[in-house]
Amino acid sequence: MIRTFVLGTAVMLGLVAAQFPKSQSITLPPGTIQFKPGPNLGIVQANCLVCHNADYVYFQPALTRGQWTAEVNKMRAAYKANIADDDVPKIVDYLMSQNGKT
Fold first, then answer.
1. What local confidence, expressed as pLDDT, does residue 33 receive?
2. Considering the domain boundaries, does residue 12 fall inside one?
3. CATH assignment at residue 49
4. Which of 66, 61, 63 is nearest to 100 (CA)?
């Protein structure tokens, strides 16, 4: 019974994995504002481009570190953004480098 369950689960997981590629790329439309180089750019792209483009960052008024932290945490809490705890300060560092107010 247990062996059948494990085998059946492994087959199902294999089928699910076969349906979803391990990596994908996103091609943004021409003229779309993209994130500019800065610290932790890859982390920002991986976490933020899932829901919106860089316009969100560059069209905001300059925010303080506390305000950007609150924005990132709002994305996690209200919109269920799958951002790891360790990535929050890295994302905030990037946001401060692009549109931060001291």
1. 81
2. no
3. 1.10.760.10
4. 63
Residue range(s) defining the domain that contains residue 85? 26-99
pLDDT in tens, 13-62: 555 556 666 676 767 677 778 899 999 999 999 999 988 889 888 999 99
Report yes or no: 71 and 65 within 8 Å, Cβ to Cβ: no
pLDDT tens profile 56-88: 889 999 999 999 999 999 999 999 999 999 999
Half-sphere exposure of 59 (CA within 13 A, CB side): 8
Classify residue 16 by burial, with Cβ atoms within 10 Å: 0-12, 13-18, 19+. exposed
**Residue 17 maps to a domain:** no
C-alpha to C-alpha distance for 87 and 94, rounded to whole angstroms:
11
- Hey, what amino acid is at 6? V
CA 34 to CA 37: how far, in whole Å? 9
